[in-house]
Design a protein that fits this description.
This protein has nine helices and nine strands. With 250 residues, it is of the alpha/beta class.
Length: 250
């Protein structure tokens, strides 16, 4: 049975004054996938995520998230999709539980149900022992894990993750990637993952897309992209080698 499409863009475009951040972007993400969204700084990845969440209006083209148009139905999209930005913001003078209770109230979750979910999520992300610690004292890794609890509180079908491992040490990045993989595997959450960590992306992604200068220059499985650029051979190419090949040819 063919997987259903959960994200689709057709010629999606975004201009800022005279600058083109995203140009004629057309791609699909299937339900149940981890899709690695790659590209250098300024490639248009974050702009694309913002348009898919209904947080930025496109200059042209169209997008669908779970069949919804983010431009016309941004609230509905936000109910079913979670967005974790590169820099997660919390109230530093509140503890983890208080921050999550505030987020739960914004999402219309009843107080008794919210308390139960918060306990469950803090345990899931490994912050149960730090539940009453002020978030201002959290390390970056702890804030990232609390960010996952925040986006998971509404039981999303889809996660948009923008550089979730940036600033983490190698061990922290590895553990966070394994956590993302477990969310996809155990909770059947579709993930669009924007990251510079090519090695980790290769380990957990079903397919990848490479954006350069606002355009998608490649999309597919790592095996198909390797075949396209290097031909059939005995060597298994890494995602980094494939990425650099596309980057050098643009």
């Amino acid at each position: 049975m063919e997987a259903s499409t959960i994200i689709e863009t057709v010629n999606l475009t975004k201009h800022y004054n005279r600058q083109t951040a995203v140009k004629d972007l057309s791609f699909k993400v299937n339900e149940g996938e981890v899709f690695g969204f790659l590209g250098p700084n300024g490639a248009g990845k974050t702009t694309t995520l913002l348009m898919l969440m209904g947080l930025s209006h496109p200059s042209g083209g169209s997008a669908r998230v779970c069949g919804l148009d983010p431009l016309r139905k941004p609230i509905e999209v936000k109910r079913i999709a979670g967005y974790l930005p590169e820099n997660v913001g919390f109230y530093g003078d509140l503890d983890a539980v208080q921050n999550l209770k505030y987020v739960a109230s914004l999402n219309g979750i009843q107080t008794d149900k919210a308390s139960e979910k918060i306990d469950e999520l803090l345990d899931l992300v490994g912050l149960k022992q730090d539940a009453r610690k002020k978030v201002g004292a959290f390390s970056r890794g702890m804030k990232q894990r609390l960010g996952f609890a925040e986006v998971l509180i509404k039981d999303p079908k889809l996660l948009f993750l923008d550089e979730p491992t940036i600033g983490l040490d190698p061990d922290g990045a590895l553990r966070l990637m394994e956590f993302i993989k477990s969310l996809n595997r155990d909770r059947q959450i579709t993930v669009l993952l924007s990251s510079h960590n090519l090695y980790q992306v290769q380990k957990i992604s079903h397919r990848v897309g490479i954006m350069i200068h606002g355009e998608m220059v490649a999309e597919g499985t790592i095996e198909s992209l390797a075949k396209e650029k290097f031909g059939v051979g005995q060597k298994e190419y890494s995602l980094e080698e494939i990425y650099m090949k596309y980057f050098q040819e643009v």
